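Issue: ligand-bound run for magnesium ion - logging full I/O for the record.

Environment: standard queue, default settings, no custom constraints.

Inputs:
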Amino acid sequence: MIIESVEALPVAMPLPADYSFRAGPFRFAGFRSAVAVKVTTRDGIVGWGEAMNARSTQAITTLINRTLAGLVVGEDASAVNAIWDKIYRSCIKSSGADAGFAIGLSGIDMALWDIRGKAAGMPLYRLLGGWSNGIRTYAGGLSLGFEPPEKLADEALGLVEKGFRALKLRAGDTLEMDFARARKVRESLPDSVSLMIDANTLYSLEECRIAAPRFADMGFLWLEEPFPPQNLAAYRRAGHFANIALAAGENHFTRYDFQELLDIDAIGHVQPDLSKCGGITEALRIAAMASARHVPLSPHSATTSLNYAASIHLLSAIDNPGWFEADASAANPLHHDIGTKPYEIENDGTVRPLDGPGIGIEIDEDLLRAHVLTD
Ligand SMILES: [Mg+2]
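Outputs:
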């Protein structure tokens, strides 16, 4: 299975004209973008992966096409560890663009696992030694943002009607508004619905000292990313503020970042993103590190159906699965329209991995190519 070509496609698909989403400084309107990575072997097997756009869709694409592809073409597609190590030795440990390279590597690695599964005729979760059981799922993605409390409660109720048994809210506004939104949603939902909350790195240590006990009192399962990923000292101190788990990891890269994150002994859920952390190969290593510390892994998931499906495969194959982050965005054509639907929410609020070979997403390549960014 010699790799013949690696091609990254910078894709942007339009959102409805009246769509917008806001949570703190994060605003989305107009389009959603991602980098789709196509790897083809000489014997004609095609694998697809996703690299996070990192708000630099063209830069990530160029990094893959101009630098990483040259390291990968001609290698054996089944040798995921050797290819990972080659990119690590050639780029990550020496050239100073660690996150960018890890993101590019993630897209290639995901595509290689898709190829491995297709070659074996097995769905990825089985190739990884997993099984098809229900994975606990919460409503995430670009949903439940900085809306007025009443409107937010209506959105939350609508998601519960769609089958979600857990929802994640956003924090990082004023504390007053954070508490008002959290209280209104908590009061509006049955006790059986679990809640998490994500501050998207926007809290100070003092804000977190006030907020964490309030969210704990309201029964929230975790407080996600109160601080930037570089501020491990704040995470270490905040781990003791209240009886609520801290979650973090969507902005950490490779097992080396996760080792430091786990070593502070304050994180209740690690959240590597398969399109950022170094791919499926690296997520398996991070899962094992977390497992040894009895910490569940709840992957951050965005943006295309490839990453969502791959995340469910991973959760089905590790011994410390946490929660799957489903895409509850009101609109995301990169999730809904580019190929096979990645999951269904079952009656008990869980999801199961796809059973097709590899990741199990049949990509509509013509549609992707019709939405490639030209500049
Ligand atoms: Mg988050």
